[in-house]
């Protein structure tokens, strides 16, 4: 269970990274969306590092 849970978290992190990149590539990026995505990525990264 541990490895598949970690893999799922890493997959979510990768998807958030892609969404963040897409948002930043827009002509007028939404700063609130960017901030939210960055916070979500950070929380996932912390959860991944905790095991």
Main β sheet profile: none
**Can you tell me the overall shape?**
elongated
Strand content: under 5%
Overall mean pLDDT: 93
Low-confidence residue ranges: none
Count of separate structural domains: 1
Question: What's the arrangement of secondary structure elements?
Answer:
Blueprint: H1 2-25, H2 31-50
Task: Describe the fold and architecture.
This is DUF465 domain-containing protein. Residues 1-35 are annotated as: Disordered. It comes from Paraurantiacibacter namhicola. With 51 residues, the protein is mainly α. It has helices at residues 2-25, 31-50. It has one domain (2-50). Helix 1 packs antiparallel against helix 2. The mean pLDDT is 93.
Quick description:
The N and C termini lie close together (11 Å). The chain has 2 helices and no strands.
Key structural traits:
51 residues; mainly alpha; 2 helices; 0% strand; elongated
């Amino acid at each position: 269970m541990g490895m598949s849970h970690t893999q799922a978290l890493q997959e979510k992190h990768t998807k958030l990274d892609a969404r963040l990149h897409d948002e930043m590539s827009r002509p007028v990026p939404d700063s609130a969306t960017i901030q939210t995505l960055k916070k979500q990525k950070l929380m996932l990264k912390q959860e991944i590092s905790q095991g």
